[in-house]
Amino acid sequence: MSTKAQNYRIVFGLKVKQLRQAKGLSFAELAEQTGMSVSYLNEIEKGKKYPKDDKVLVLAAALDVPSTELTSGELDKSLAPVTELLQSNFLNELPLDLFGIELAKVVEIIANAPARVGAFISTLLEISRNYALKEENFYFSALRSYLELHNNYFEDIENAVDECVTKFGIPEERPISGDFLRKLLEKQFGYKIVDGGLDAYSELQNLRSVFIPEKKELLLNSKLTPTQKVFQLGKELGFNTLNLKERAYTSSLLRSKTFEEVLNHSKATYFSVALLLPRATFIADLQRFFQKESWDGEAFIAIMKKYEATPEMFYHRLTNIIPQFFGLDKLFFLRFSHEPTSDYFEIDKELHLSRRHHPHGNGLLEHYCRRWVALSLLNDLNEMQQEGKFVDTIVRAQRSRYIGTDDEYLCLTLARPAYPSPNRNVSVTLGLLVNEDLQSKIKFLSDPAIQIRDVNQTCERCPLSDCKERAAPPIIVEKRERMRLVQNRLKSLVLQNNEK
């Protein structure tokens, strides 16, 4: 059934319920007046059934309204937020099935308490307007939740990669040649790969590639490194191997129309990463690395360079493999972007497994803690660049202890210049919760060479008084303290008055 018909049932059911309750009729009384069963009326009000025309006339007469009012598809002012929700594309695009939620249950919730649900929806819509949130914000949030629900590991895509390697005779040795993938796409899927295909379009210089479906042309940015080019080719192979029809045609998602588009982009990305960093050899590499007695940043980078992977590809694979094969699922991933001319650091990608961990994105324009290794490494990278030093990738480990909590994380961070975006640096961080399990599996965890620092979420929320890295005053802490003093004074006044 179409979304339009489904929404029509919901609206009709809500109107019947509202009119029945306004007249003070029970299900049994309305059933007696209409000759319809209680169960049938219940399904109508829940949006599961829509009566035939003759029964609509009977219902309208029993509820004392014209049939045209009952079938108009418009709800009154008290249910306006529900109408707005149904008229938007959100209800249709929410990936409820991915989370094991039946749409009928959502409809039932709306039908059972339309006024309360309406107020809740109104609040969400108002918040989204205030923070300029659009549909794609919800889609990306849903995607993160979906990845977190599955511990960011998908056996079906891993198997599809293995089958693709066998079917097309992809060499086992890594890295894979870009020429091999180019010829594979051209021969098996009719692609035309155009190097420098975006050079003529100044507006598209920050994109890595654009796919023209009518011609099956893949236009590549000439500024791409060989690794980035191979990754784009791997994604295209993923789209075709996984038969992902609904997709964006740009390398990054600029504005997504549907959740399916966002999900398919994620699947193709996963496929490419799994293809370029094979599961078995990558697991073996990590096992050897984790058994080292001392932290070795060069050995960490060497794993990435073995596969000629970018830091993003490398960390994507770490978050696939570590939870599934090392049992370390209490982790987070953050990617920071930084323009050296400003003091603003932006989180543009994040993932949290098991729960939401302390270091996470904050949409309130507060200053992230400068003690985070993700930020300190970016500052160090900028200083090297200012000194005229050529820097590709730098690495650092840190044990971060969160003030006011028992949580501590082993953070492994890489920082590098952004490509192809000029005058911008990025850092990627994997944070692993320090516990007995981590101590048993990573031997270098207690290496004294790894710096231990007390950190917080943002400067505005940090009570430390002697922090040399502070970028903003602790206004949230001060506000809470003022409120605490007010509450204490009010409490003492009440007690004094009671004693009199």
Q: Which short descriptors sum up this protein?
A:
500 residues; alpha+beta; 434 Repressor (Amino-terminal Domain); Arc Repressor Mutant, subunit A; six-stranded mixed β-sheet; three-stranded mixed β-sheet; 20 helices; globular
Please characterize this protein's 3D structure.
The chain is of the alpha+beta class and 500 residues long. It has 3 domains: 3-133, lambda repressor-like DNA-binding domains (434 Repressor (Amino-terminal Domain), Orthogonal Bundle), CATH 1.10.260; 150-276, Arc Repressor Mutant, subunit A, CATH 1.10.10; 279-463, no CATH class. The protein contains 20 helices and 9 strands. A 6-stranded mixed beta sheet has the order 5-4-8-7-6-9. Strand 2 and strand 3 form a beta hairpin. The protein is globular and about 85 Å long. The model has no long low-confidence stretch (mean pLDDT 87).
